[in-house]
Amino acid sequence: MALEQNQSTDYYYEENEMNGTYDYSQYEMICIKEEVRNFAKVFLPAFFTIAFILGLAGNSIVVAIYAYYKKQRTKTDVYILNLAVADLLLLFTLPFWAVNAVHGWILGKMMCKATSALYTVNFVSGMQFLACISIDRYWAVTKAPSQSGVGKPCWIICFCVWTAAILLSIPHLVFYTVNDNMRCITIFPHHLGKYMKASIQILEICIGFVIPFLIMGVCYSLTARTLIKMPNIKKARPLKVLLTVVIVFIVTQLPYNIVKLCQAIDTIFFLITDCDMSKRMDVAIQITESIALFHSCLNPILYVFMGASFKNYIMKVAKKYGSWRRQRQNVEEIPFDSEGPTEPTSSFTI
């Protein structure tokens, strides 16, 4: 996680010091960040617990419905299913980071690498699948809908998204480790140094935010314009959904990526030389990254529960489960010595 790199930074170095071998005992500690760590110990576990519970509930329902009940899937359905899987895998890393904020990393170097890579894979792929959904919705509104269902190109796109996210996570597998303070952070070789770190951060910003944001902005703008021009249809609700999706994406992702970009620039040019400013930057990355993570809890609401089709499947499952419960209760109420026929139970309706 980006915030882990900052919580352990207690020293400032001049640019010519970045190429040498560090002996930390020779440098004066000029910025003690104990209050930053204390803030993380309280804020991160509380926030991650809420996000984990809400996100696990919503995305699990999405995966269950699409995997077991909805047999005829569209391209958007496939993208939403992949998005829910990515969100779930991302949420499963949060308990580890919550424990890390309080007690430090106690699971060893390999788990540090694996958890960091898993976090990056699913965070980036989730943003990419949001872009795929916007493209498919644009084609559904502006072009004649295809009757062929999910084709090979859809699965190729999903494969490419996962592959790109996995490739972007390779630096986490290589450079993440556990330091002497029991923190899971990135440590780059001295010959790679600041430019490698900044390049990786900028690449993550481009693939995980800039490209999806541009695609979503263009597709949803064209979709909204097409809906407005269409006669004799109810336009208010689709337009509100599109506007809500874009606003939520901007509110949750833009602050985090702005702070991350500032970090990348500071990595190269050493602009932050004040201790208080460094502390504020650390707290800012903790808060903004947590808000960005919360988008995984909102995805089921934005992309699934607002849709009439998915709500119909929820209703069918509820009716089926209600009917099964009614039948079971009716059977359980029959005495063991009863030999008479039982009355059939009526189906549960909502």
From TrEMBL:
Q: Where are the transmembrane segments?
A: 42-66, 78-97, 117-135, 155-178, 198-220, 241-259
Any one Gene Ontology molecular-function term assigned to this protein's record: C-C chemokine receptor activity
Name the Gene3D superfamilies on file: Rhodopsin 7-helix transmembrane proteins
Single GO biological process annotation from the record: positive regulation of cytosolic calcium ion concentration
InterPro entries documented for this protein: ACKR4, CCR1-9-like, Chemokine_rcpt, GPCR_Rhodpsn, GPCR_Rhodpsn_7TM
Q: Which GO terms describe its cellular component?
A: external side of plasma membrane
Where is the G-protein coupled receptors family 1 profile domain positioned along the sequence? 58-303
Q: How does it sit in the membrane?
A: Multi-pass membrane protein
For whether the record's keyword set contains Glycoprotein, the answer is yes
User: Where, subcellularly, is it found?
Assistant: Cell membrane
Q: Does the keyword Membrane apply?
A: yes
Coiled-coil residue windows: none
The protein's UniProt keywords, in alphabetical order, are: Cell membrane, G-protein coupled receptor, Glycoprotein, Membrane, Receptor, Transducer, Transmembrane, Transmembrane helix
Q: Which Pfam families match?
A: 7tm_1 (PF00001)
Q: Which family does it belong to?
A: Belongs to the G-protein coupled receptor 1 family.
Q: What is this protein called?
A: G-protein coupled receptors family 1 profile domain-containing protein
